[in-house]
Amino acid sequence: MIPPIDACHWPLARAGEALEALALAAGLPGSPGTAGAFGSSGANGSAAANDLEALAQSMGLEAERLVLANADLVATLRHAGPTLLRAGPAAAPWIVAILETGRARARVIAPDHAIRTVPLDALHDALLRDTEEVHAPRVDAIVRRLPLAPARQGAVRAALLREQIKALPRDLGWSLRLSPSAPFLAQLRRAGIARALRAMTAAHAGSFAVSLVAWWVIGRGALTGHLDRGRLCAWALLVAMLIPIRVLTTWQQGLASIGVGMLLKQRMLLGALKLDPDTIRHQGMGHLLGRILEVDAVEDLGFHGGLVSVVALIELAITVPVLAMGPSGLASVLLFFAWLALAGVLLGRFAVRWLAWSRARHTMTNDLVEGMLGHRTRIAQEPPADWHQGEDRALAAHLEHLRGLDRLGAWITGWLPRGWLVVGMASLMPALGSTAGVLPEKLAVGLGGVLLARAALMRLASGLTSLTGALSAWQHARPLFHAAARPEPGDGREAERGPAAADIVLDARNLVFRYRPGAPPVLRDVTFRIHARDRVLLEGPSGEGKSTLGSLLAGLRAPESGLLLLDGLDRTTRGARGWRRHIAAAPQFHENHVLSNTFAFNLLMGRDWPPRKEDLALADTLCRELGLGPLLDRMPGGLMQRVGETGWQLSHGERSRLYMARALLQRADLLILDESFASLDPETLARALRCVLDRAPALVVMAHP
Ligand SMILES: Nc1ncnc2c1ncn2[C@@H]1O[C@H](COP(=O)(O)OP(=O)(O)OP(=O)(O)O)[C@@H](O)[C@H]1O
Asked: Domain ABC transporter: where (predicted)?
């Protein structure tokens, strides 16, 4: 019996429990009992949303918020995986926990934790019911005025209602998935990659075994002079069997390759975002770029190399007994192992050379990027004769590395298998010359063994050289991979206010900071308080540590000692995301950036994108208050004008006001402006200052005296 939809609703206050039940049923990680902490923010509206996302994060899950138009609900429901959708009246919101959906039905988890099947249409109607009720009076008034037969009124009303609400945006709920920072093996398992790899290996082994039997059937027939019709049919049948096996192998290989590539890129991207900016700066931007480029090499070479090596190992496992069954028996096997040992030595040397070449390549990339970053300065200030100094030497060294690598690679993939063919054939000679006579089948098996061993060696050489490249690339890309698993300070849960007095926004006590252990501290015993609506001007000579203090307050760096409290809680307790939500900073020019995108995108980076009408209107008002009105009117695209390196080049003063507007639009409790007014003429400065003083909740401005 199909249960009524209402019986599957969870009240919003039990959303944490619904999340836990859903994770459990979907095989996602979860720690039972954590749901008890849900709703500390009142379990209502956006506070509940924050709580739920934080709870998902603490369970190792990612809850992606689904903000869509009502019209997208049908498509969303059709492809919903583990998803929590919310609806209901504002006074009593509810949640439905969808495990999976099919063409016409959805499997949902009811509040008694039972899994129920409900029709998609009914679920869709229930989710839209409350929105429709809000618009119903207007639609009813229209329907009453229309000359309609009573029998048609219902259908017209329903169609009009859907039309009215279809374009309205709606906070639908959350789609759940394993966090990209979860253990990689768990991600591979969840994505079904391990299954695909197992199927692929089995299919490869099957295909190889079938080819071997086919070859044995035809070979034996030919050598014994019994190549009859029956044998040929058996051979043809075996060869035909290979077609579906190879299709299956390629299919599974494709699935595994796409899946692994996607997960790897996702993880590396997350890792790149979590890298410490000071570490990146210390190592150089070029090294970061090099690391990111290596991700492709890890994926391509690693997957190809791993796959080919596994196939080669399967071939080797089948080859050794075949060799042992040949006329030279154990001698052939021992010779083959000796050849493998030689291959190992050559591969070891190849790996050492590859690593050296890869290091040299990274240094070159770094130098190139540094040169590109500073090319405008170099053009203006360096004599042209010095622009390319050292480049020829670096290129020559690079070519030398590459030449050595190619030479060794050719030995491994070319001469090693060929050499084995000669040695393997030679090992059969004593048997051929023996007076006792050797059975033709035994000779055929021996010959086949040598050929099989050659094929396996070729594959092994190709696989292991690729794996060597992948390992070398991994050395560079590894920090990104590991950084993805690094926990953010705090679990992202935005905790409640701490015990601070109501109007104290920020409380700093005895802060100490130094850039390197052992170096003299840049900040020593810094103590102050910032209240709501405070306006603080931080003046000091150059290099005194104003920007450093700003980065501490903004949560970009952590103090070595001392206490820094935001609304009574430190950064670890509050969580990195929560901290940044409350403090917005416009750093100095070398730390801030205009992205190659629209002016509006650059302004509204702290808000939802695509933008809502109200956000665009507020951005426009703010820009005009800051004196950017004439610029907006001058740019053909207005707020939608493309700016940045590849677009409209903003002047220094325009950029500084864009940064101010961007920070003001973050809806933070404290605004930090680091030398933002330094590039403005007196009149524009007065205007921008008035706007900032009017609009900033609490304000810290760094400036020179
Ligand atoms: N990554 C770093 N490693 C070591 N020292 C650093 C690093 N970054 C900054 N410093 C040093 O820390 C000191 C404080 O720098 P900071 O940028 O905070 O000063 P400031 O008061 O904002 O200066 P200005 O007014 O010139 O912008 C300077 O001496 C600077 O050279």
From this structure: 506-705
